[in-house]
Design a protein that fits this description.
281 residues; 36% helix; single chain; alpha+beta; two-stranded antiparallel ribbon; 9 helices; globular; six-stranded antiparallel sheet
């Protein structure tokens, strides 16, 4: 049974906002969500701001390194944002504990292991231990992927309240990166229910064709799923056990991190072989 939530706090007066800062952050957030270059005209249209205002915002952000411009004039996120990501990550205890795990050789799987936290509807990768084996996908600190597609993202979402997940993702159809993955929040909730029941998530080529992962949640002392880990492999390397040892590795790392954070170690998962998934993950 889920713990009873405390009563809501009294409504406080809204803190004053600085419009120019709000516009600049909204512009950066839009570019981050799109993950592709956007022209001045596109930004002007989507932000519903005067062209001169958007032009000024872009020039200011470029001067500080938070935006960069392509030869065709389209804008991209600039390298300066990495310093903000690194500052955030350096203060994230779970990332430090994840990196400390590898001093113990028994926690070092042969395959790529990643750690993410929820950032809106995305899984934000705060640490990664990339394998030397070719995967076709490099996980870098600061990288974002839709949480409803990634193994580590779904591991975290499975332990959120259903209504919170509904509110987070809304009623719009999901954008997919391959032909697989949930199409909407209803499909996601069905998958999250199965994930929570078995204790681990599966990404069967929803992030990248040929890439398969097992994800597991990391709990803090309050019993909250504060992060997710995933062991990522080339699907062709699953083996006769359908990746059972990789699933166990993800669970082992998640338990170790939970213990380091003072969290309750999740109950062991029955040693049933992962069920082969169909066309949708």
């Amino acid at each position: 049974m889920s713990p009873r939530l405390p009563p809501p706090l009294p409504r406080m007066a809204a803190a004053p906002m600085v419009p120019a800062v709000m516009r600049a952050l909204t512009l950066l957030d839009r570019l981050a969500q799109r993950r592709e270059p956007m022209s001045l005209a596109q930004l002007t249209s989507e932000l519903a701001l005067p062209k001169s205002s958007v032009h000024g915002l872009c020039n200011t952000l470029m001067s500080f390194g938070y935006l960069r411009r392509q030869p065709d004039g389209a804008f991209l996120i600039g390298a300066r944002v990495m310093s903000l990501a690194e500052a955030f990550i350096s203060g994230t205890d779970v990332a430090q504990e994840f990196n400390a795990l590898w001093a113990n050789a028994r926690f070092a799987p042969d395959e790529t292991v990643v750690l993410s936290v929820l950032s809106g509807t995305d899984a934000l990768y705060v640490a990664a231990r990339n394998s030397a084996r070719p995967l076709g996908l490099a996980f870098n600190v600061g990288m974002r992927l839709p949480a409803y597609l990634s193994g580590s993202g779904k591991a975290m979402l499975a332990f959120q309240e259903r209504e919170a997940v509904r509110e987070l993702f809304g009623a719009e159809p999901f954008q997919r990166l391959t032909r697989k993955g949930p199409r909407d929040v209803a499909g996601l909730l069905r998958e999250l229910a199965a994930t929570r029941k078995r204790g681990y998530s599966i990404d069967d080529e929803a992030v990248r064709e040929g890439v398969y992962s097992f994800g597991a949640p990391v709990f803090d002392a309050a019993g909250k799923a504060v992060a997710g880990v995933a062991v990522c492999i080339n699907k062709a390397m699953l083996g006769a056990d359908r990746g059972e040892r990789h699933r166990d590795a993800a669970l082992r790392v998640a338990r170790a991190l939970s213990t380091r954070l003072g969290g309750e170690v999740p109950a062991p998962v029955a040693a049933a072989r992962p069920r082969k998934t169909g066309g949708r993950s």
